[in-house]
Amino acid sequence: MGDTLVGIQPDPEHPKRVRTVTLDADDISDALDSLRRFRSPDAPVVSLYLSVPEDPGQLKAAKSKLHELVKPVRELAESDELSHDERESLRADAARMLELESLLVPTLQGRTLAFFRCSRYAFEESVVVPRRLRDRVFLDATPYLRPLLAVLDESHRYCVAVVDRERAWLFTYYLGALEAQDKEQDRVLRKPNYAGHYGLEEHRVRNKAEELARRHFRETTDALQQFVQDHGCELVVVGGHQEEVPAFLAFLPQPLRQKVAGTFVIDTHAVTPAKVRDEAERIVEAYEREEEQRLVAQALERVATGGFAAAGLEWCLLATDEQAVQLLLIHDDATAPGRACDNCGWLGLDGDPCPVCAHETRATTDVIDEMAAAVIDAGGQVEHVYAETPLAEHVVAALLRFPVPFAKDHAVA
């Protein structure tokens, strides 16, 4: 389900009046389904990504950035490079983009707006991403989706458990957002070492305290297992006092322990969602980078040993055309111009007419973006790699479903 964003803007025709500006923002998965299907044969599609800072004092800079991003759209709309209909479409798109300024406060603070529009075909789609992405604007025949795909790359659903000897908080962490879901609390002794004046009594109280703590950890483990199942969590992050986190982990059954992506130390007497989110974000970031390094190493090792893999733009484009890509790895925000055939789906660095069906091809600003969308349409996955890895030398690599021979020497040392 999406949201309707509402803002107020002065009416240019009646300066003393204001008018309401609305924007329908869809869930990222639903929006991608619509965006991947859209093609504009004779008018550019505008793709805008605008991050809005949390600090209200920086909102003026965000508004200036919006105007800066709209500028090339307006300039192209007034140039002689396009037809009359294309220019009119871009003028309407630019005007609509400027309306977004009224939505920056407070609706989008701390988030990123991904906005796609082609006025000629009455197409508009928006997504609000709960994290900062790089500001950019793209003009092409298709929506520019790589930043959204990169967000979904890291869309593991995490369970975050904060545990001490008497309490437990369970959260879900997904797409940068943390939600409090459940809280467990057990009876414990007022002080684990409280025992009056007698050593025997002290020993009895200590044993009772340890017994209560063990029972609490067992019950929390059961609650955690049920929580992971109910919410579809793929991974787990555990936080708590430094000495108590290992004690709790020892109670986890092996299948659940294998899901633990990392741990953190936190004062459980001062737990807030904001603190937990910050700690979870740090763990998630480290886990995602380690996963990227592992996948790149796996792909390049397969290339070097002649396995089901490919490396380099030309080879991966060929594998994409053959629908052989199981997982496409893309280095950071790398882009490359190329050509695409809207008749048969062929993609390449150059070629007109299409070498497969002989239809006319179109130039694309970023053929890697087209390749990523094609891989997903064919049932594959895409992973953007932000960690420092040897993938930087190749730009892209892929794990394949079946071998795709390539004439050039792409051996990896």
Secondary structure tally, helices: 10
The CATH architecture of the largest domain can be named as 2-Layer Sandwich
The count of β-strands is 18
Range of strand content: 25-35%
Determine and state the CATH class of the largest domain.
Alpha Beta
> What would you call the shape?
flat
Attribute tags:
413 residues, alpha+beta, Translation, Eukaryotic Peptide Chain Release Factor Subunit 1, Chain A, Nucleotidyltransferase, domain 5, 60s Ribosomal Protein L30, Chain: A, 10 helices, 18 strands, 36% helix, disordered C terminus
Structure overview:
The chain is an alpha+beta fold and 413 residues long. It folds into three domains: 3-144, Translation, Eukaryotic Peptide Chain Release Factor Subunit 1, Chain A (2-Layer Sandwich), CATH 3.30.960; 158-271, 2-Layer Sandwich (Nucleotidyltransferase, domain 5), CATH 3.30.420; 291-400, Ribosomal protein L30/S12 (60s Ribosomal Protein L30, Chain: A, 2-Layer Sandwich), CATH 3.30.1330.30. The protein contains ten helices and 18 strands. It has helices spanning 28-37, 59-77, 84-99, 146-153, 199-231, 244-249, 254-257, 273-304, 313-321, 367-377, and strands at 3-11, 14-25, 45-51, 112-118, 123-129, 136-140, 158-163, 167-174, 177-185, 235-240, 260-265, 309-311, 325-331, 338-340, 347-348, 362-364, 381-385, 396-400. The strands form five sheets. The chain has a five-stranded mixed sheet with strand order 9-8-7-10-11, with helices on both faces. Strands 5-4-3-6 form a four-stranded antiparallel sheet, with helices on both faces. Strands 12-18-13-17 form a four-stranded mixed sheet, sandwiched between helices.
